Amino acid sequence: MIGIGVSSGIGMGKTIIKKEPTIKLKKNHIDNPEREISILNDAREKGKEQIEALYQHAFNTIGKKEAGIFRAHKMILEDPDFFGQIESKIKEEMVNAEWAISEVANFFIEMFEAMEDEYMRERVADIRDVTGRLIKIVLGIEDTDLSNLTEPVIIVAEDLTPSDTAQMDRKKVIGFITEVGGKTSHSAIMARTLEIPAVVGLENATELISNGDYVILDGDTGNVIINPEREVIEEYSRKREEYIEFKKKLEEMRGQKSITKDCFEVEIAANIGTPKDVEGVLLNDGEGVGLYRTEFLYMDRDRLPTEEEQFEAYKEVAVKLEGRPVVIRTLDIGGDKELSYLPFPKEINPFLGYRAIRLCLDQTDIFRTQLRALLRASAYGNIKIMFPMISAIEELRQAKGILEDVKNELRSEGIMFNENTEVGIMIEVPAAAVMSDLFAKEVDFFSIGTNDLIQYTTAVDRCNGNIAYLYNEFHPAVLRLIKKVIDNGHKEGIWVGMCGEVAGNPQLIPVLIGMGLDEFSMSASSMLRARWIVNNLSKREMEGLVDEILKLPTAEEVKDFIAQNVNIN
């Protein structure tokens, strides 16, 4: 059976099946809404107590960064708007508390699932976890206990919530298998953090695997083998030993430069969403932040963040990174990411509509506030400003014009900022890639956003299951555009980075080295592996392979060519 490998390593052992109790909610008409609201509030308080206990347990056993998810869960329980909607539904529709919780939860779940941004889609797990906890408390249902495992096991579940992973005895868990999830789902992130092999997205796993089965899972390939023959067990035992040795090699990468055998040096950086993510960057020896997604400052609140709130967030990241570069993307809201307090027009295709730089150039008061905060924070570290969704030179010039106006304001007010702050753009729209020779004359750097560049170049909605197979990072057209952007940037003497998922893809890192990419930005947990790959390559050899790769007509041929011709062992 094949799922999605999300956390490297080989897991071998007996299984325990974790199945959630079947809860059939009924919509009941009630006569006393105040009683239901009282039940809701009691459940809310009990939920807070449980989550605080989980936070403390996770803090002590896993770490502060990983425990932070429960602070986010507590914020949901403290959100007056969220609970205001539940209370309103109880009062207006005269329905029972658990039904109202479920209905409001489903509203938010559908909203987040419709978003293109994978990070935002995965927040559905947080909403499900918190509201599921509330409903169980209301109904008096006890959670499955994973804290008292008696022997090492591989956990097989439909999904694993943050609460599940926080309470489990990590010393007894040798692997995860889940039916749902992707590379950025909570269970995947937690598995990588705990360095536990994991496979997700394995349909019907809880039906196909029984309690006590002996299972092998490969966290790289996604392969799962049930009750294997002795020869297979021996084969995977050897693979497991090889992986343990490989992990030792990765640890040796700490403190080293990211440099090829023929002395081509690159920067291995991380993508982050909040200041607390810097901890993971430093823990994994990152050389900077290649993408700070500022939109998360604007979400989960009922008003725009003030200049001071933004300044403190940007400053915190800059100070913690102690001079390492921090590329901060200006507000990328709209499309799949809407704000409850900011009206958006109804659009047939919001991903091609009023979003990102287009919104900022229209609502310049929002844009100017953010630019003021960014420039002020630039006095405290190596901040670089990046504009997203640029598709025309006019947009870039207008954005730079507003930035210059803000600089003049700060000068007149006597406020310090870095006069030499670098300004760049994300290359995520094919028009920008095609015109990158002209854009390169007007900016200090490019950062290629492959997630959208692939989607727009291939005209594939990667959230559409019917055509998702066409969304392919090995597509020759995408690789040709990437090469064009890098070449055009270098001709004008600017550096070129990449902050999409492709930057952390072990199969494509050699290709990108051959193309001359200067900076790779990825999830923090992937950085040491990326450095190891870079340090075992020759740029000159990779350049020759790139010439051959760009002649190939299909994504499959590209992938096969890389597999056959790139050996970094």
Quick synopsis:
The protein is an alpha/beta fold. The chain contains 23 helices and 15 strands. The strands form 2 sheets. Strands 8-9-10-11-12-13-14-15 form an 8-stranded parallel barrel, surrounded by 5 helices.
Number of domains: 3
Strand order of the largest sheet: 8-9-10-11-12-13-14-15
CATH fold-type name of the largest domain: TIM Barrel
Annotated CATH homologous superfamily of the largest domain: Phosphoenolpyruvate-binding domains
* Proportion of residues in helical segments: 40-55%
The averaged pLDDT comes out at 89
Number of strands: 15
What is the level 1 CATH name of the largest domain?
A: Alpha Beta
Poorly predicted residue ranges: none
Radius of gyration: 25 Å
Please give the CATH architecture of the largest domain: Alpha-Beta Barrel
> How much of the residues is beta strand, in percent?
5-15%
Fold topology:
Layout lengths: L3 E4 L2 E9 L14 H29 L2 H14 L2 H14 L3 H17 L4 H4 L2 H16 L13 E5 L4 H6 L5 E6 L7 H9 L3 E3 L4 H4 L5 E5 L5 E3 L3 H22 L15 E6 L5 H6 L5 E5 L13 H14 L4 E5 L26 H7 L1 H14 L4 E6 L5 H20 L10 E5 L2 H5 L1 H4 L5 E4 L1 H9 L17 H16 L3 E4 L10 H7 L3 E4 L4 H9 L3 H11 L5 H11 L4
Parallel strand pairs: 2-3, 3-4, 4-5, 8-9, 8-15, 9-10, 10-11, 11-12, 12-13, 13-14, 14-15
Antiparallel strand pairs: 1-5, 2-6, 6-7
Helix pairs in contact: 1-2, 1-6, 2-6, 3-4, 4-6, 12-14, 13-14, 14-15, 20-22
Record keyword descriptors for this entry.
569 residues; alpha/beta; Glucose Oxidase, domain 1; TIM Barrel; 3 domains; 7-stranded mixed beta sheet; 23 helices
